[in-house]
Amino acid sequence: xxxxxxxxxxxxxxxxxxxxxxxxxxxxxxxxxxxxxxxxxxxxxxxxxxxxxxxxxxxxxxxxxxxxxxxxxxxxxxxxxxxxxxxxxxxxxxxxxxxxxxxxxxxxxxxxxxxxxxxxx
Length: 121
Hints:
globular
């Protein structure tokens, strides 16, 4: 059974930073990603990273501000979020076994319960 647990969410002011972490159980290594869903909006892929860290995806709205990384020795996925904007406020979910290339990211067989990010202006 694969389990994912996100942490690092919180309430910040616009322009501040947060780092999200996702701890994953199990011995397999997966392509992984961060997704978010704001109130009354559809879930969107924010950033994903493949087995090889050379393959990453970012949604246009976070390019240059967010950085995804993974530490497989610690079985942890990260999302460094800088210069946060009110429109970044959402529940952020970690997913494993996603399908991605540099142009898109979707799917995900395993999901965490989510962590809330609030950004005030």
